[in-house]
Amino acid sequence: MKKRVLWLSLLLALCVPLIAPSAAYAGFDEGIDYKKIEPPQPTTAPAGKIEVVEMFWYGCPHCFHFEPKLLNWLKTKPKDVEFIRIPAVFPGRQIWEIHARAFYTAKVLGVLSKTHEALFNAIHVDGRRMDNEKELRAFFVKHGVSAKEFDETFNSFAVYTKVRRAADLSRRYQITGVPSMIVDGKYRVDGDLAGGQEKMLQVVSFLVKKERAAHQGAGH
Prior knowledge:
Layout: H1 2-24, E1 35-36, E2 50-56, H2 61-75, E3 81-87, H3 94-109, H4 112-124, H5 133-142, H6 147-154, H7 157-172, E4 180-183, E5 187-190, H8 191-194, H9 197-217
Parallel strand pairs: 2-3
Antiparallel strand pairs: 1-5, 2-4, 4-5
Helix pairs in contact: 3-4, 3-6, 3-7, 5-6
């Protein structure tokens, strides 16, 4: 009997170190809940900030439903998080490029706060495709941009350059679908991996904490 008690005690002592790390990491594991980006990509966040990127497409119904959840998360995001939206662009998908041009046109003109949610609604609530320059011009005019201003910006080199960069980042981040979140250029989280959009943001928050600890450990 004494031998059995001693054996159980030794077994429990061996198990504790195995259980503790899992609890410490809240059950979020690389390769299961998120993917590591290899090689890690440079960020544009200021020193001391943790960059969080959302990759999206206006035509994606999942992105449309994710938007309110993301906005709620942004209301309480840590102060050291630098949030950036980037429209995903894939080769051969012209409508993704057109919508990316619309996003950067709004950003360059300073009207993104007026058009971002409105463009989602035009597509997913009103049932409009918004897949051509004429339709987008009318949309921007409705939101206070002159037709001339829209044409000049939508077809500008500045917007073209931003769209090319978005396409390059879509490839380098190894995006396979949207919405996807990139944390500090190192980790990718999406709904399929995380197991739903709510959990997706929980994993992002976990990775932000992980990166904060890494920054502090490196003396950033």
